[in-house]
């Protein structure tokens, strides 16, 4: 976890993915042109974002598995009309 990182739990999924994409672009730019000294800092921040994305995906999957175990399946989630 980066010491100057913000609380990522307050961001929406779209904001989280958007900011991770922006960080990826900045990382690639710094890798190509410099300054290379910022790369480890960007990697730590990107790891925080990736961990938050993974945690959210895990929670969503667990919720879906609970619904399936209760016999609800995907009723009310997927509309194929």
Notes on the protein architecture:
The protein has 81 residues and is mainly alpha-helical. The chain has a domain at 12-60. The chain has two helices and no strands. The longest helix is centred in the middle third of the chain and has 31 residues, at 39-69. The protein is elongated and about 55 Å long. The termini are far apart. The model has no long low-confidence stretch (mean pLDDT 87).
Question: What labels describe this entry?
Answer:
mainly alpha, 2 helices
Question: What is the subunit arrangement here?
Answer: single chain
What is the chain-wise order of helices and strands?
Answer: HH
Q: Report, as a whole number of angstroms, the end-to-end distance.
A: 44 Å
The percent of residues in helical segments reads 55-70%
Output mean pLDDT: 87
Share in β-strands: under 5%
Query: What structural category do the secondary elements indicate?
Result: mainly alpha
Q: What does the radius of gyration come to?
A: 18 Å
Q: Tally the helices: what do you get?
A: 2
Major β-sheet profile: none
The dominant shape is elongated
What ranges have pLDDT less than 50 throughout 5 or more consecutive residues?
none
* Number of strand elements: 0
